[in-house]
Amino acid sequence: MTKDHGKSVKNDEQYEELREKGMSKEKAARIANSEKAGKKGGKADKYENRTKEELIEKAKDIGIDNYSKMNKDELINALRNR
After folding, report:
1. pLDDT-based confidence at 54, cuts 50/70/90?
2. Beta-carbon contacts of residue 34 (< 8 Å; ≥ 6 apart)
3. In the 8-state DSSP scheme, what is residue 10?
4. Taking residues 38-66, what's their average pLDDT?
5. Reported pTM
6. By the 8 A CB rule, do 6 and 27 touch?
7. By three-state DSSP, how is residue 13 classified?
8. What is d(CA 4, CA 28) in angstroms, rounded to the nearest whole number?
9. Per-residue three-class SS string for 17-73
10. What is the pLDDT of residue 32?
11. Is 18 exposed, middle or buried (0-12, 13-18, 19+ CB in 10 A)?
12. What's the Cα-to-Cα distance from 51 to each of 41, 56, 62, 63, 76, rounded to whole Å?
């Protein structure tokens, strides 16, 4: 049975799976709380297909610093390596 992590985690099952794989609590929660967290099979939009504005919003949401000074490629790299 999946543990309820309260309001701070939207997808408890995914959060627990990510934690079991060794992800930090912060990163697992961020992924489990993303809008497309429930999508399987690579159905989330690829970063390359998103606008720079969409990437900036995502960077803001997950707390990447200096996102406003980055170009699209730098934003993609920062999001993938966060």
Report:
1. very high
2. none
3. S
4. 83
5. 0.53
6. no
7. helix
8. 14
9. HHHHCCCCHHHHHHHHCCCCCCCCCCCCCCHHHCCHHHHHHHHHHHCCCCHHHCCHH
10. 80
11. buried
12. 22, 9, 17, 18, 11
In this structure, the dihedral spanned by the alpha carbons of residues 24, 55, 38 and 30, taken in order and rounded to 10 degrees, is 20
CB contact at 8 A, 15 and 34: no
Closest to 28 (Cα-Cα) out of 14, 40, 41, 42:
14
Considering the chain, what is the average pLDDT of its residues? 82
C-alpha to C-alpha distance for 70 and 21, rounded to whole angstroms: 31
